[in-house]
Design a protein that fits this description.
With 206 residues, the protein is α+β, with helices and mostly antiparallel strands. The protein contains 4 helices and 11 strands, in the order αβαββββββββββαα. It has helices at residues 2-18, 30-39, 182-186, 189-204, and strands at residues 22-25, 46-55, 59-69, 81-91, 94-103, 109-113, 119-121, 130-139, 145-155, 158-168, 178-180.
Amino acid sequence: MKSYTLLLLTLLSSLSFAQDKIQRILPKQPIYRDLLAELGNPLPGNPVLVLNYFAEKEGSYLFYFNEARAKGESYLTDKPKDLHAGLYIEDHGGILKLITFNDFAGPLSQPKYLLDYCVTEDADKNKSPEFYLTYFEASDGEDAKPLKVIVYSRNGKTFMKSKITTWLSYQPDAKGRIEKDENFKKLPKSIQIKAEQLLNKAKATL
């Protein structure tokens, strides 16, 4: 419990001085090892990022972004990776699963996180965080390739999944289309704007 207490104290310190409830935990940080030693790694592969959000009325959330070596062959890379992500909440010294995400490498496709655009925030200021997972599906050929932002937001006692997708084409005269699923259209406008901003910023890097 010592290491997790250190994590909680770090978050409370941030709350006291900067009103910052969010911590991005990366493999190079000592707290990363402490976190995994205390609470474990609940998903296949290894975390490349863990987002920690301490919500005063709800508790401490952990969003794991894992990569695992794919079992199948790939013609795009000699080290294909599957993606496994999951949202958990600290509960009685352990963690309780709330929602999970998986995407798998194929012979001609390779999903990858865009970690700079995987974030958590309370965009609608309702004292409950949303979690944004941004990833790109690289593939062989000149077909349009999907860039997605998945939003996990609280809907009563559960979390709802919403998605906005754009397709990128490397043809000079082609324009990518944008699709919003029905759940996305029901989100508060502030959350939609945040997801669209992440999508546009991520798109600019590809």
